[in-house]
C-alpha cells in the first residue's frame, strides 16, 4: 500500500511539473512572459526606435516619453542613430534593467532575433512597433498602420493624379521603394504594385527604365540623396525627349528628392506620391507640386501602443485586429492595425483639421 501511494505521489509530482512547464511555454510563446500575469504600474517600459530619418520618428520619441510617464510607468525611449549594432545593444541593456515590455521600432527587423529571444527568456513581452520583427517566434504583438493598404492608396493616387492631368494614357512612370532592410518597404511596394502591375501589363503604364522589381526600385537607408541620384540617372537615360508623367514614391522624404531631381533636369513636375505627412511635403501638396501623401498619425499609433502596454500591465490581452496577415517567417504575429488616409490638396483641410501643426498649413 505504501509503495502504491509513493508511486502515485511521484506520478502526481511529475504531472504537476509537466503542466507547469507547459504553462510557461504557452505564456512565453503566446503573449509575453511574466507580463501575461500583469506587473506593477511603475515598471520600466523600454522603447527602442530606429534612426531619426523622418519627422514621425522624432515625434514618436516625445509621445512615448510623455504618454508612458503620464500613465505611471518608467519610460526609457532610445534611438539607434548609430545603426543596427547600437539598437541590439540598447535592447540588451533594457532587458538587463528589467523592462516589463519592449516596444521596438526596428532598424532591420531581421537582425534582432537574439535580442528579442533574450527578452522573452526574461519574461518580457515584445511589441513590434511600425515595423515587423522577422524570423523569430519571440515577438508577441505588432502595432502599425495597415501597410499593404498604404501601398494600395499610393498606387491609386498615382493613377488618379495622372488621369486628372491627362485623361488617357499611356503614362510614363518610374517606381521607387524604401530601404530593403525595413520590413515595411516591400509591403508598401507590393500594395502599390497590386494596383499598378495590371496597368503595366495592359500598356496603360510604361516604365521606360524597365526597373519594375522591388530589388531594382529600393532606396538604401531611405536616404534622400540615394533617391535623387537614382532619379537623375533615370531621367538622363530615359527621358531626354519624353516626359515623365508619374513617380511612385514610398514616402515624403524621397518624394521631395525626386521632385528636386526633376526640377534640376528642367522637366515638368510629374505626379508624385508620398507618405508620413511631413511638413514640407504638405506645403508642396498645397502648392500643387507634390500630389499626395499618406496620413499615418503618429499620435494615434503611439496611443495604441501604450494602450497595449496598459492591457498587459493589468494582466489582460492587448487589442488585436488581424491574426492572419503578418507572417514574420516563423510565426503569424497578432497585429493591431490602424487605417491609413490618403491626402491630396482636395481633402487636406479635412484630414488635418485636428492636427495643430499641419492643420494651419491647409488654410488660405
The biggest beta sheet reads: 6 strands, parallel
Structural category is alpha/beta
Give the helix proportion (percent range): 40-55%
From the alpha-carbon coordinates, what is the Rg to the nearest angstrom? 24 Å
Strand content: 5-15%
Distance between the termini: 93 Å
CATH-defined superfamily of the largest domain: Response regulator
Output the number of helix runs.
12
The CATH level-2 architecture of the largest domain is identified as: 3-Layer(aba) Sandwich
Order of adjacent strands in the largest pleated sheet: 2-1-3-4-5-11
- Order of SSEs: HEHEHEHEEHEHEHHEHEHEHEEH
Q: What's the number of structural domains?
A: 2
CATH class of the largest domain: Alpha Beta
Mind explaining what this structure looks like?
The chain has 364 residues and is α/β, with parallel strands linked by helices. It has 2 domains: 31-139 and 297-333, Response regulator (Rossmann fold, 3-Layer(aba) Sandwich); 147-296 and 344-362, Rossmann fold (3-Layer(aba) Sandwich). Helix content is 46%, strand content 13%. The chain contains 12 helices and 12 strands. It has helices at 2-31, 55-70, 84-96, 113-121, 147-165, 183-201, 214-217, 224-238, 252-264, 279-286, 298-313, 348-351; strands at 44-49, 74-79, 101-104, 125-129, 141-145, 171-175, 205-206, 246-248, 271-272, 293-295, 335-338, 341-343. The strands form 3 sheets. A 6-stranded parallel sheet has the order 2-1-3-4-5-11, sandwiched between helices. Strand 8, helix 9 (252-264) and strand 9 (271-272) form a beta-alpha-beta unit. Helix 3 (84-96) packs parallel to helix 4 (113-121) and helix 8 (224-238) crosses helix 9 (252-264). It is elongated. The relative contact order is 0.12.
Amino acid at each position: 500500500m505504501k509503495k502504491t501511494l509513493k508511486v502515485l505521489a511521484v506520478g502526481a509530482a511529475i504531472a504537476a511539473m509537466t503542466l507547469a512547464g507547459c504553462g510557461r511555454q504557452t505564456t512565453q510563446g503566446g503573449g509575453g512572459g511574466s507580463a501575461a500575469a500583469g506587473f506593477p504600474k511603475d515598471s520600466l517600459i523600454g522603447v527602442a526606435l530606429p534612426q531619426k530619418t523622418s519627422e514621425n520618428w522624432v515625434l514618436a520619441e516625445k509621445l512615448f516619453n510623455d504618454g508612458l510617464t503620464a500613465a505611471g510607468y518608467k519610460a526609457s525611449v532610445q534611438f539607434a542613430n548609430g545603426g543596427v549594432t547600437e539598437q541590439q545593444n540598447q535592447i540588451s541593456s533594457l532587458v538587463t534593467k528589467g523592462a516589463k515590455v519592449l516596444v521596438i521600432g526596428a532598424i532591420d527587423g531581421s537582425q534582432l532575433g537574439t535580442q528579442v529571444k533574450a527578452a522573452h527568456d526574461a519574461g518580457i513581452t515584445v511589441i513590434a512597433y511600425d515595423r515587423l520583427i522577422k524570423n523569430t517566434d519571440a515577438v508577441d504583438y505588432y502595432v502599425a498602420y495597415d501597410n499593404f493598404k498604404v501601398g494600395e492608396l499610393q498606387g491609386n493616387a498615382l493613377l488618379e493624379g495622372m488621369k486628372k492631368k491627362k485623361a488617357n494614357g499611356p503614362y510614363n512612370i518610374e517606381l521607387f521603394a524604401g530601404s530593403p532592410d525595413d520590413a515595411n518597404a516591400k509591403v508598401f511596394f507590393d500594395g502599390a504594385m497590386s494596383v499598378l502591375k495590371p496597368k503595366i501589363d495592359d500598356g496603360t503604364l510604361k516604365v521606360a527604365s524597365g526597373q519594375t522589381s522591388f530589388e531594382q526600385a529600393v532606396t538604401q537607408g531611405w536616404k534622400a540623396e540615394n533617391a535623387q541620384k537614382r532619379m537623375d540617372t533615370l531621367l538622363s537615360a530615359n527621358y531626354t525627349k519624353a516626359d515623365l508623367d508619374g513617380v511612385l514614391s514610398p514616402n515624403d522624404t524621397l518624394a521631395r528628392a525626386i521632385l528636386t531631381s526633376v526640377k534640376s533636369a528642367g522637366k515638368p513636375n510629374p505626379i508624385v506620391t508620398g507618405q508620413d505627412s511631413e511638413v514640407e511635403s504638405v506645403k508642396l501638396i498645397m502648392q500643387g507640386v507634390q500630389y499626395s501623401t499618406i496620413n499615418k498619425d503618429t499620435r494615434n499609433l503611439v496611443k495604441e501602443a501604450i494602450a497595449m502596454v496598459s492591457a498587459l500591465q493589468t494582466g489582460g490581452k492587448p487589442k488585436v485586429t488581424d491574426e492572419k496577415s503578418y507572417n514574420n517567417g516563423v510565426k503569424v504575429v497578432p497585429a493591431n492595425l490602424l487605417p491609413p488616409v490618403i491626402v491630396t490638396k482636395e481633402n487636406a483641410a479635412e484630414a488635418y483639421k485636428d492636427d495643430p501643426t499641419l492643420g494651419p498649413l491647409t488654410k488660405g
